[in-house]
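Structure (tokenized):
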């Protein structure tokens, strides 16, 4: 079983501007697994698990799991997430002529269960819904932060 979560957003910016904003958001500057710090990442080079092409970036994360305490309701449950960001020209002539780009964010989430974990279907379903909500919230925040950077750059350009 897997969950496929995707979003599409038309943005009034060029593919190059959107690509730069997306790259800066995900490369690690002031960001580490969703937490913000004042210092920037020291090594911003690409690694073996990052693929960059003219139209796509691929991010593969490690397994995320909750606290393994025996009294925890989701002990022994976790998930693996694989995310993609695609930036492309819209198919609508109106949006294409208006200088828009389409930002597509996709995540494939695979819930995982440790063999020794004896959880019932209700608990596994609740964890799956929890994981889905976390991924959707993270994607929404990332998309909003990318939009905010683009809007700030546009306002700075006008002044």
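Design, position by position:
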């Amino acid at each position: 079983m897997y969950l496929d979560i995707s979003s599409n957003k038309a943005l009034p910016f060029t593919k190059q501007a959107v690509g730069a904003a997306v790259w800066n958001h995900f490369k690690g500057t002031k960001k580490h697994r969703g937490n913000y710090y004042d210092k920037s990442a020291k090594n911003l080079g690409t690694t073996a698990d990052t693929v960059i092409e003219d139209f796509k970036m691929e991010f593969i994360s490690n397994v995320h799991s909750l606290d393994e305490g025996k009294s925890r309701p989701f002990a022994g449950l976790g998930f693996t997430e694989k995310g993609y960001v695609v930036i492309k020209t819209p198919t609508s002539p109106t949006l294409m002529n208006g200088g828009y780009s389409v930002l597509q964010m996709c995540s494939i989430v695979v819930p995982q269960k440790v063999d020794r974990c004896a959880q019932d279907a209700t608990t596994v379903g609740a964890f799956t819904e929890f994981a889905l909500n976390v991924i959707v919230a993270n994607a929404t925040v990332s998309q909003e932060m990318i939009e905010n950077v683009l809007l700030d750059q546009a306002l700075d350009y006008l002044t």
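Reviewer-requested clarification: The chain has one domain: 3-158. The first strand starts at residue 3 and ends at 11.
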